[in-house]
Each structure stands twice: as structure tokens, then as C-alpha cells.
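Reviewers asked in the last cycle whether our approach scales beyond single polypeptides. To address this, we selected a multi-component target totalling 632 residues and predicted its structure end to end. The input consisted of the following lines:
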Amino acid sequence: MIIALLPLGHFLLAGLSLAWERGTRGMMLFSLLLDTTLVGVLFGQFANGQSLSIVFGDWGRELGIELAADRFSLVLSLLVLLLGGAVIAYQWCKRLRPYFYMLLHLLFGSVFALLFARDLFNIYVIMELLTLTSFLLVGYEKRADQIWASLKYLVLASLGMGIYLLGVAIVYYHTGTLNLDLLSAMIFSSGDVPKWVFLASSLLATGVAVKSGIFIFSLWLPAAHATASPAISALLSGLVIKMGVVVLLRLALVFPLSLSLEVLSAVTGLLGIIYAIYTYDLKKMLAFHTLSQIGYVVLGIGIGSEIEIAGSIEYAVGHGLFKGLLFLAAGAAVQATGREDIPGLIARRSRISLASRVGLLVGTMGIMGMPPFAGFCGKSLLSNGAESLVIQTILVLLSIGTVISFAKLIPLFRLERGPSTPWSKTVAYTILGLPMVLFLPLTRLFLPVELWRESFGTIPFVESLLVVGAGLLIHRFLRKHPLRLPKRIFHLEEAILTILVGFFLVFVLVWLG
Amino acid sequence: MTCINGVTIAIVLFGIGLLGLIIRRDLVIKLLALGLLNGSTILCLVSLNSLPGGVPPIIRGPSAVLYVDPLPQALVLAAIVINFAILALALVFVMLLVERYHTTDTQRLEHEAEREETS
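The resulting structure, written as C-alpha cells, was:
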């Protein structure tokens, strides 16, 4: 019952918040506290080994809508709660229209629904709902650049979902069910994989990849996440993108997507990092880093062993925390200085408040993989599980690239007293920063002892410190050679073409793998 | 069985929609092409899962008659509503853009947005 209550309650409150204008802010806080209790109860039931699944109506699993919670969905629910709390705290002192809180309720409701969804069509409907909500959130302030960015997002996401629906049609034609668990039993029990599975799985994966921030598919992302207001960017980058990744994980457990996801993760990671290194606009650089960091998460999903998936989920949660923190602190810094480019920000750094600067510093250390923060945990779990040399090399390259691009921010971090911060922003930074700092002990709750000891011992510590050192050194050389990268691929037509090219790439890789 | 059936028509419509989305520069026509493309996926879902010679799934006579599977037809209702919502909201945003930039040409919109960014 609780599983159904989480999404449906938020949808109900979305309607209510339009009707009862004055209480929307309090209602939002109350609903998040209620969510926390409900998720806590779910965790308790999960620990006792109860089955957390509900099928609506009397249709059975073949036809009915099944909602079920497992370890991934519960861990990611924690991320929803933390990010939600931080965003509400950040906006607490602003006077916002009830419309904004309605959109937030819709967003949280659909995020919870997607975490628990277990059939392909249900996933389609919820992803479309997420598209519409995030489209409206990006254009919330109605600035012209926001509207253009969100329109591009809507067109590309809708195209992606069209491609996904074709995949759904093929799957239903051949199997007569859309439930992922039943499908997995059918496809794996039949011995060698039938031919239609290749086409269907590449269509499904392409459709979802458009929404999950993979470079050649999600070229709408830099514009949309860089132009949206900071709280919204934090939610979109930390949470909404992860939802696409969760669907990719569910698909990868059923369909033969392993090789294609590994290749795509390398592509998105490396291209994202190259763009991030040569971007000097703070919010845009963070947006490019969403593309690059998704590489880590998708890599683990592609390899698909238990450690790697645990590493992926951990990195997804960690990335949600530090990217949320970075976007919130960057938004405050940009607002205080009136500049968006990093040299401009550094020139006026005395106007940035101390709390925002500390927020940026903690977020940067997290994303760089500095032990013992959140990024380090995910990265060392992933590299502990990776066996082949190619994957190890990709992981090291990604880590060094991340350090190089964030080294640009180091002059910002001089710890001097700045202007004071409103308490609400400090609370928001604490909500995100504290779990990030305590991430290492917290992961102990979710991992077996031996794996935990092995992944976070002395050697990974030294390795990460070496990677950070190497990145900082390379940054000193690279900063003297700026480079202009092609911007045309982010135009609407080119982005559509790259999605098509990406589809053929995925199809070939699925066929080979 | 002829080669003109729902599925082939759906594929052709998908192609036309995609082509329109790529080569037409007008944003409104692009959105119409997107609508066509999404419509074609719905046609594909329904016609792929219909039986040749099947009867609509309304039980009137003996149960041995070959009924069409009703589930895809129930599913596409949701998809149709979603596509309508997307088209409507997108057109509202196009209106806001036209108020500001006075054009629906995507190349010029892209240019204006870039100019605003650099300034």
C-alpha cells in the first residue's frame, strides 16, 4: 500500500496546492516529512524480507500495473528526499507561486512512481509526465533563452519517447506482456536470443538514452540545465537524469544491452569531459559534467556484475548530492556577483558568501573523487569491480578529466569572510553536504563488510590522491591552450540527426554483443 | 495479405515525420511533424497487435469468435492524451518565443539565443 501512497499522494497534493494557495509551502515540507516516514517504513519492511509489491486491479501481473520496491529504488528514494529537502530549503525565503509547488509535487510523484514501476508502458507514461514537468520547470521564469532550451528539450524527448513506444509495440507483439520480470524470464529461458529482441532493445534503449543524459543522445541538456534557475537545475541534474538511468538499469537486466552501454558510457564520459574542460561558463560546465558523470553510472550498469551495479547506484546517489550542491552554490555565487563566467566570478569573489564558497568547495572535492567524500566511494567501487584493462583506463581518464576541468575553480576557494548568507541557503547546503561528507560510513549500511574493506582500503585512497594530483598538474599545462569546440551539434536539427546515428550505433552494438 | 497494412503505413508516416522534423526550419511545422511521428507510433502499436480478420473485443455472441487483444487499444488512449498535452504546451511556448523574437525559424532562434548568451 505504501508504495502506491508515495506517488499518488504527491499527485493529489499537486491538485490541492493550486486550490489552497497560502499553505503550499508548509504542505510541501509536511509531505516531504511524511515521505521520509513512509520510506523509513519501507526500509524496515525490506529489511524484514517482506515482498514489497502491489498489482492494481484483479488483472494479474501479465496485464495489470505492478509497483514494486527493491534495493535500488529504496536507495534512490533517499536521494529524492535529500534533494527535495535541500531545494525547498533553498527557496524557502522566496515568494513563489503555488504553480511552482504544484510542479514540484508532480515531479516528486512521478519520480517515486518511476522508481517503483515495473512494466514498460507504465514507464513510458511516467517518463512523459517527467518530460512535461521538467519542461515547465525549465521555462518557469519565462526568459526567452529558457523557453527555447525547454522547447528543444521537449521536441527531442518526445521524439525519444516515440522511438521507445515503437520498441514497446514490438515487445508486446512477440510476448504478450509488458511486465519486466516476466519478460526477463521469457527472453532468458528461450536459449538463444530471438532476432526481434535486438531491434526492440535498441529502440527502447535509444528512447531512454535521450532522457538519461548520454552525450550523443541528450544534446539538449547543456542549454536546458545551464539556463534553468539554480534550484531547478539541481533537481533536473541530480534527480530527473537519474530516472532515465534507472530505466536503463531495468532494461539492461532484461535485454542484451551490455556492450552498447559500455561503449556509450565511454563516449559520453570522454566527450562530456572534453567539453567541460574548455567551457568557462560555470553553470554550463556543471551541465557538461552531468553528461560526463553519467558515463560512470552507465558503465557500471553496462558491465552488470553485482559490485558494478552497487557502484553505479552509489555513484548515482553521490552525483545527485554533489551536483545538487554545486548547482545551488553556483546559483548563489552567480546571483551575488552578476557574472556567469569563471574568470569574472574569480575577479569578484569577495562578494560571494562564505557558505556558498564552502558549498562549492565541498561539491568540487566530491566530484573530483577526493577521499573520503561521496565521489571517491562510487569511483573506487566501480574500479574495484572492473576487470578489463580498457575499462580501468577509461575510469582513470574520466577521473583525471574531471579534476582538470574543476581545477579552474580553485582560485574561488579562498576562505575569507564574505557577506552573510540567509539561513535557508545554509540549511540547503548542509542537507546535501553532510551526507556527502559522511558517505563512507553510511555506505557501510548497504554493502557487505569484506567488499567495503576491499574497496575503500589504503590503496584506493592513495590512487585517488594520485589522480587528483595528476589532474591538477595537467590543468597547469592545458590552461594556456584554450580551444574552441564545435557548438553546432547542440542545434535542434543536428541533435535529431545525432539521435538517429546513435540509434544505428546502438543497434549494431546490440547485434554484436 | 497485401503489403499495405497498418504497420507499413505507420513506418512511412514515421519517416515523413522524421524528415519534416529535420529539414523544415519552421518551428510550428516541426511540431506538426512531431505530432505525425507520434501518431504513427500509435498506429504501429495498434495495428501490429491486431489480428487479420479479428472482431472488436466486445463480447456479443459465442466466445469462440476471434477477438482482437483489447490491451493495446487501451494503452494508446494514454499515449494519445500525452501527445496532445505535449503539442498544446509546446505551442504555448512557441507563442511566448514569437512574442520575444518575432520569428519561428529555428536557425534564427538558435542565432538569437547564442547572441543573448555571449552578451
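The interface with chain B takes residues 63, 121, 124-125, 128-129, 131-132, 135-136, 139, 142, 144-145, 147-151, 154-155, 158-159, 162-163, 165-166, 168-170, 172-173, 176, 223, 487, 491-493, 496-497, 500 of chain A (CB under 8 Å). We regard this as preliminary and will revisit it once experimental data from Aim 1 are available.
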